[in-house]
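Final report, closing paragraph on structural work. Over the funding period we assembled a curated collection of sequence-structure pairs, and we close with a single example.
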Amino acid sequence: MLPKRTCKLRINSHGKFYRKPRREDIELFEIFPDEILRLEKPLYGICDAGDYWGETFSNHVQNTLKMESLHGDPSLHLKRSGSETIGLLGSYVDDSLFARES
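Its predicted structure, as stored:
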């Protein structure tokens, strides 16, 4: 289990997974924000592995690489120098491609 400071899941003594709903799920599925969800059956692995990866990747790109995500497509990131765009990073799941002018 991940340390509490990074863990979004809660596991009880019977191995059941519980979590608070994500903001986008509250509106999409008409869930109350104070509800706790129980995972019945994950499709594969740990149910939030993709969310953990996406959050870790996004934090790295924004905080370490100092790139900004596009509002229309959060999988595209721009690297700027002043008002000039000097690079573009596209990502899909765990693949990424960086492009810049030579």
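Residues 49-64 form the longest helix (16 residues). The CA atoms of residues 43 and 49 lie 11 Å apart. We thank the funder for supporting this effort.
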